[in-house]
């Protein structure tokens, strides 16, 4: 719940910042109107178009990248579940003791992953990684000992077990892949500047255009918030599903 509260608070702060930038821009526009500068309205329109175009590109690329990373993380959970299932089924090829040891390790590994996923809002703890690697070592020893007695099944059995271990590394790396804070800061600054320019244009014309300006501020705030939320799939409203596991 803390993660959801933090992200909702971030959304409210973003929207409040947009409204403040709109109001500040409007006040500056009114001052410029009082000065009676000629042809300023046309110049503002050109600048608004350029700034909004650039902002649109930045938001599109950032949102698409965050969405892609989210789907990659979800796909990796499914791949991990498939690797666990394949390893479990192929363990049937081993002799009794090795089969039991491998299946017990796979079951413990799956239960551990599900339990850990519920606590990943603060990231991967070092002790959790150590526990996972310990269970992986048990899986590998059981599979290795089993194929030592049944070498004809080496490729069939060791491949999914090795893939399962590799997927852990991929998930760790995927958890660290987020939008850099500098890029996110640039997005927020560009959004505030664009909304400020919209407010400035309204001030020059002395017309607030509330329905249009508020809708634009709300839309930009939502895109920024969704980009931020997608990059934190264990904290916010949009969360990864462990149903496959």
Structure summarized in a few sentences:
The chain has helices spanning 2-35, 40-90, 96-117, 126-149, 154-176, 181-205, 210-230. The chain has 245 residues and is mainly α.
Secondary-structure map with pairings?
Layout: H1 2-35, H2 40-90, H3 96-117, H4 126-149, H5 154-176, H6 181-205, H7 210-230
Question: What does this protein structure show overall?
Answer:
- By secondary structure, the protein is mainly alpha-helical.
- It has helices spanning 2-35, 40-90, 96-117, 126-149, 154-176, 181-205, 210-230.
- Helix 1 packs parallel to helix 6, helix 2 (40-90) packs antiparallel against helix 3 and helix 2 (40-90) runs antiparallel to helix 5 (154-176).
- The longest helix is centred in the first third of the chain and has 51 residues, at 40-90.
- The two termini are 23 Å apart.
Provide tags for this entry.
rod-shaped; about 240 residues; single chain; 7 helices; mainly alpha
What series of H and E elements makes up the topology?
A: HHHHHHH
Radius of gyration: 27 Å
pLDDT < 50 stretches = none
Number of strands: 0
- Structural class call reads mainly alpha
């Amino acid at each position: 719940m803390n993660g959801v509260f933090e992200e909702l608070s971030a959304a409210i702060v973003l929207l409040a910042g947009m409204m403040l930038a709109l109001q500040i821009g409007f006040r500056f526009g009114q001052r410029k109107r009082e000065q009676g500068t000629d042809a300023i309205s046309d110049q503002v329109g050109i600048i608004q178009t350029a700034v909004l175009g650039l902002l649109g590109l930045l938001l599109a690329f950032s949102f698409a990248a965050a969405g892609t990373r989210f789907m990659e993380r979800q796909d990796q959970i499914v791949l991990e579940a498939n690797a666990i299932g394949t390893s479990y089924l192929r363990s049937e090829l081993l002799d009794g003791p090795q089969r039991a040891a491998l299946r017990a390790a796979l079951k413990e590994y799956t239960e551990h992953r599900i339990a850990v996923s519920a606590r990943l809002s603060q990231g991967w703890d070092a002790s959790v990684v150590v526990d996972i690697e310990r269970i992986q070592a048990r899986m590998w020893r059981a599979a290795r000992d089993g194929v030592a007695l049944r070498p004809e099944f080496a490729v069939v059995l060791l491949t999914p077990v090795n893939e399962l271990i590799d997927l852990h590394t991929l998930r760790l790396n995927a958890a660290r892949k987020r939008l850099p804070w500098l890029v996110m800061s640039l997005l927020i600054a560009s959004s505030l500047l664009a909304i400020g320019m919209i407010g400035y244009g309204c001030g020059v014309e002395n017309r607030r255009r509330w329905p249009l300006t508020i809708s634009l501020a709300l839309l930009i705030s939502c895109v920024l918030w969704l980009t931020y939320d997608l990059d934190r799939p264990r904290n916010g409203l949009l969360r990864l599903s462990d149903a496959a596991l």
